[in-house]
Amino acid sequence: MPGNLTFDALKSLVSSGEIDTVLTCIVDMQGRLMGKRFHARHFVDSAYNETHCCNYLLATDLEMYTVEGYAATSWSGGYGDYVMKPDLATLRLVPWLEGTAMVICDVQDHHTHKDVPHSPRAMLKAQVARMDALGLTPVMATELEFFLFEKSYDDMRKGGFRDLEPISGYNEDYHILQTTKEEDIMRPVRNCLFDAGIPVENTKGEAEAGQEELNIKYAPALDTAEYHSIAKHAVKEIAWAKGRSASFLAKWRHDKVGSSSHVHQSLFDKDGNNVFCDAKGEHGMSETMRHYLAGLIKYAPDYTYFLAPYINSYKRFQKGTFAPTKTVWSVDNRTAGFRLCGEGTKGLRIECRIGGSDLNPYLALAVQIAAGLKGIEEKLPLDPPATGDVYEARRAKEIPQTLREARETLRKSKFLRETFSDQVIDHYARAAEWEIEEFDRAVTDYEIARGFERA
Question: Looking at domain 7-118, what is its CATH homologous superfamily?
Answer without folding.
Answer: Glutamine synthetase, N-terminal domain (3.10.20.70)
